[in-house]
Please model this.
Amino acid sequence: MKITKVMAVAVLAAFLGVLATGGLQAQTKEPIKIGMIQPLSGPIAAAGSYITNGAKIAVERINAKGGVLGRPLELIIEDNKSDPAETRNAAEKLIVRDKVPVIIGAWGSSMTLAMMPLAAQHGVPLVVETSSSSKITDPKTPGQKVVSRISPTSELEAVGAGALIPTLGMKKIGYLAVNTDWGRGAVTAFGEAFKKNGATVEAVEYVGQADTDFYAPLTKFKAAGVDSVVITDDAPKAAKMLQQMKELGLNVKVLVTGGSAWPDSIVQLAGPKASEGAMFINFYNPYDANMAGDAEASKYYVDEWKKKGLPWIGVVEGMRGFDAVNVVAKAIESAKEPTAPKIMAALKTLEAKGLYGLNKFDQNGQSYCNIIVTQVKDGKYSVVAVTPSSKLWEMAAAK
Amino acid sequence: MLAEFVQHVVNGLIVGGGYALMGIGLTLIFGIMRVVNFAHGEFFMMGAFFLFTLFSLWGVNFFLASLLSVIGVGLVGAVVERLILRRLRLAPIEIPMLATVALSVIIQNAAILLWDPSPKTIKHVFSPVPLTLGPINVVSIRLFAGLVAVALIVGSHLLIQKTRIGRAMRATFQDTDMARLTGVDVDRVYMFTFAFGAALAGASGALLGAVFWVYPAMGDLAALKSFAVVIMGGLGNFLGAIVGGLLLGVSESLGAGYISSGYKDAIGFILIILLLLWRPQGLFGKKALPR
Model:
């Protein structure tokens, strides 16, 4: 009895293991492994699940077309539990045990920063899909040399949105940011942009990653008499902040940075009333394929997302995973062999049109994507202004 | 100025009511059963998800759904006690503790599989327009949460002091062997205690889930806070859990309001360290006697 039970469990475990790695699909050629680290549990697990879904769509699309170098791609996904230390452990597992030649990750800036030195030590290239702290592509940061980042820095976001500030009438700003490298970096970057454009930041408040109650900082903002609130945080928390602003009777202009919150997600999470008029900095427009660098890929991605019945509010976040896999695939293609040093070299000269815009990397491994300012208007998605990826590349070249 | 202060205190008291409910559950389970329940946050999370499923997905009446959710979590607690903890009763204290750690991981991951990790809103029946009392704003759902928390705290107190099962619980708390000798069904007391503690955590989760969010990891921070509350109030002490919960809620709110919200969680824990330096047994705890 005992033995049969143990056997059953063992068989089940083996079966689940096979399912998890996708090994049931009969593949004659050995797949090329791609490591991916995302928050799949913990407070930001939703974002991580969207990105892994986007990445899976890209892998399926590539494999359906015959894979890369005649071999299928295989994603090995690890959970960093929304925690920097766990991210480093996950990277170690991917590099040492799975021997992946490249890693995509790890959503949050603090998490990405935690695994960079380890990846550099092993010479494994990192494709960073979400993080926005400028530290990541700063040559002084340990491990920066293995980073290729497709997501924009907060500074780039500020360039795209900064010029809008005078026209929006933002004068006295309360800044609400998540207490991580991302939030702290954004406060510095946007603070400078606001100053340049004649607005002052009256108060800065940092909130914990798992916080849900923002009454205290918002009450403070109200007492300080701010006319605008700028938020750097993920979509669920931004939505809650908007709701609580309404609850406290704080009726001001709102700008949400970072690209994870967008009109549709906020309308669904906070309701149309609380989200009306709020603005967002986004990098992708799922309603207009032509705004992306690769219109055909954008259309395919959105169609697949709908077909799979994935939550619509995650489509803008999932794009990051989709683009990251395509960048990696293209790098492997031009590297001719899936080894870490070859892929790293190929990434340096890569040019890949994607959903972010034009993905290619400057001397510090930073790409410049589309910066789209969106707004909730009558409860619907609307675009306020677009700074295209191509223009940012021109500006960078002119410098 | 005064208005801002009062607003911070009111906000803190409402959140503190939720902490107190969590704390009472945890402290009863520890005090009576000597089980450090690391799955307490998951009972909190389950309360919120049951309410979300019953009310938001199946359309059950909000108040009935809340009641059913709390009962549901209590039943899960009873099953956990019967199937897992009862078998570990005679084991050293760390064994049931580890079992609850495992349980917490299993329940949280099951929730990710069942409901996916994206946060859910419970679109409750209360108006989102705040009630204004002078310069103070309170949304009715928060007021509701606060009042229900008070009612549940009073109810728990009455249950422990005035009912037969409450008397049995107190007897078991004082001396398990003696209670058994005088005919108390200790097994039943343990099962009831664990179910009751779990249900209180579930109630807290359902209330705060309706105010804030529902997501699988929501119990992590809540569990941490309830441990803080219980340690502050004195392990196993009912009154301590209430005072500890309210104290933590208000000090977090004031700290976030007047110092910095970046230090909100730190403020609560600094308070605990200071308090433990002064009274190592907690606010209302008795000095531990050598066994």
The first strand of chain A starts at residue 32 and ends at 38. Residues 22-27 of chain A have pLDDT under 50 and may be disordered. The radius of gyration of chain A is 21 Å. Chain A touches chain B through 41 residues (CB under 8 Å).
